[in-house]
Design brief:
This protein has 268 residues and is an alpha+beta fold. It folds into 2 domains: 93 residues, D-Maltodextrin-Binding Protein, domain 2 (3-Layer(aba) Sandwich), CATH 3.40.190.10; 158 residues, Periplasmic binding protein-like II (D-Maltodextrin-Binding Protein, domain 2), CATH 3.40.190.10. The protein has 10 helices and 9 strands. Strands 1, 2, 3, 4, 5, 6, 7, 8 and 9 form a 9-stranded mixed sheet that branches. The model has no long low-confidence stretch (mean pLDDT 96).
């Protein structure tokens, strides 16, 4: 089996025909919004939203409104406050690029990035650097109070805090198209030695016991709506009503072109 390919690279796996189709009976419990592959070569297991996280204490101390849209991030009062990741080297960075394309369109996203550059957006190569070095909301030492991270990051801050917290020190911006929804899939590899066992395990992956274990293991959401969420997710994770999305076929046809255009616009 292969687990972990997401909707930004799904079509590459399907075009290479590395999976065999499996119409799991558990798919009947999974909402259609997650079943992107009609041939059931890749079956959805979990999803999560890449969002902009903010440091609550910073905005309160500065008496600065929390930005609620992508457009707001280009306003002068937020100059130099946002750190993002390079989409060529970072999965959340790529997801945020996709959010900007979904929101502004192929004809408008580069103009938006030019505006971010003019507003002193900070670009780093990976999520770890962005979150643990640049972001002020995690260590309290970084210079940027806004970071591209995950919608589940506030819950993680509570769970892994050294002292017990009643409230997450960070939050997520969840306005329309500000978050990009990543869906992760599993597939049975073609020529697998034991496909029947793989099918059994995939059924287990989509069952409630496995699905309920996902949030606190991987900090993403189960696709099975019958799976109960941990209290930390219920209390501290904000779920966008309108996450950004793009058809996998469109992503596959343009991914490299979009990334190269981004690098020429942002890094040059």
């Amino acid at each position: 089996m292969f687990f972990g390919v997401d909707n930004t690279f799904l079509t590459r796996a399907l075009e290479e025909e590395i999976f065999i189709s499996y119409d799991s009976p558990m798919l009947a419990q999974i909402p259609d919004e997650f079943k992107i592959d009609p041939g059931n070569y890749a079956l959805p297991v979990d999803y999560g939203d890449v969002c902009i996280n903010y440091d609550k204490a910073y905005f309160e101390a500065q008496n600065l409104p929390i930005p609620t849209s992508l457009e707001a991030l280009t306003e002068p009062e937020y100059a130099g406050l946002l750190v993002v990741q390079n989409p060529a080297t970072s999965s959340p960075g790529l997801a945020f690029l996709m959010a900007t394309i979904a929101h502004f369109g192929e004809d408008g996203y580069l103009d938006y990035w030019k505006a971010l550059v003019e507003n002193d957006v900070v670009v780093v190569s990976n999520w770890e650097t962005a979150y643990y070095t640049n972001f002020s909301g995690s260590t309290g030492q970084g210079p940027q109070p806004l970071v591209v991270s995950y919608g589940s990051s506030p819950a993680a801050e509570v769970i892994f805090a050294e002292a017990e917290l009643d409230e997450a020190p960070t939050g997520s911006i969840i306005g329309p198209n500000t978050c990009f929804r990543q869906i992760e899939f599993v597939g049975i590899l073609r020529n697998a030695a034991n496909p029947d066992l793989a099918k059994t395990f995939i059924d287990f992956m989509l069952s409630e016991p496995f699905q309920e274990d996902i949030p606190l293991q991987m900090f993403v959401f189960p696709v099975n709506p019958d799976a109960r969420l941990p209290e930390e997710f219920i209390e501290h994770v904000q779920i966008p009503d309108q996450p950004a999305s793009l058809p996998p076929e469109l992503i596959d046809a343009n991914r490299e072109t979009w990334i190269n255009a981004w690098m020429e616009t942002v890094l040059d």
